[in-house]
C-alpha cells in the first residue's frame, strides 16, 4: 500500500514538473507590465524612506539640541559618508521592494523581472533628462522634487568621482531589484511545492 502511495506521489511530482515547465514556456520571460508596477513601487518606497530618514534626522537633532548646519560645517566628510550610506540603503531597499513586486506579479524568471524594473528606471531617467535638456531646467522634474534622494552632483558636471557615484548607485539599484525579483519568484515556487505536497 505504501509503495503504491509513493509511486502515486512520484507520478504526481513528475506531472507537476511538466505542468510548471509548460507554464514557464508560455508565460515566462521578461514582463515589462509587471516591471512597470515594480518601478512604481520602488519610486514610492524612495519617497517614503527619504521622508522617514529626514524626519528621523530632524528628530535626533531636535532631541540633542544640535544645529544640522553646524554639524555639517564642522565635519563635512563624516556627514557626506553617512549621507552616502543612507542613500545606498534607501536605493537598495526601494529597488528590492520593486523587484519583489515584479517577481510576484510575473511568477517566473525573477531575475529578469528585477532587471526590467531597473531598465524602467533607466528609461524614465533618460526621458526626463532629454525633456529637461530640450524644454529647459524648469521642466526637470527630478531636480525640482525634494522628496527624492539627491546624488551630490550638479547636472552636466560629471567628474570622475561623479561618474563613480553614478556607477555605484546603478549597481546598488540593479542588485536590489534582481534580488527582490528572485524573492518574489521564490514565493510562487513555495506555493507550487505546498500544492504538490497537499494534493490527494
Fold and architecture overview:
By secondary structure, the chain is an all-alpha fold. The chain has 7 helices and no strands. It has one domain (29-198). 83% of the residues lie in helices and 0% in strands. Residues 146-157 have low confidence and may be disordered.
Produce the secondary structure layout:
Layout: H1 2-27, H2 32-64, H3 68-74, H4 76-106, H5 110-135, H6 141-144, H7 160-198
Helix pairs in contact: 2-4, 2-5, 3-4, 4-5, 4-7, 5-7
Q: Compute the average pLDDT.
A: 75
Give the SSE string: HHHHHHH
Share of residues in strands: under 5%
**Rg estimate, integer Å:** 23 Å
Count of discrete structural domains: 1
Biggest β-sheet strands, sense, barrel? none
The secondary-structure class comes to mainly alpha
Q: Which residues form runs of ≥5 with pLDDT under 50?
A: 146-157
Number of helices in the DSSP assignment: 7
Total strand count, please?
0
Q: Judging from the principal axes of the Cα atoms, what is the shape?
A: globular
Distance between the termini: 15 Å
Approximate helicity band: over 70%
Short description:
The chain contains seven helices and no strands. It has 200 residues and is mostly helical. Helix 2 (32-64) crosses helix 5 (110-135) and helix 4 crosses helix 5.
Notable traits:
single chain, mainly alpha, globular, transmembrane helix
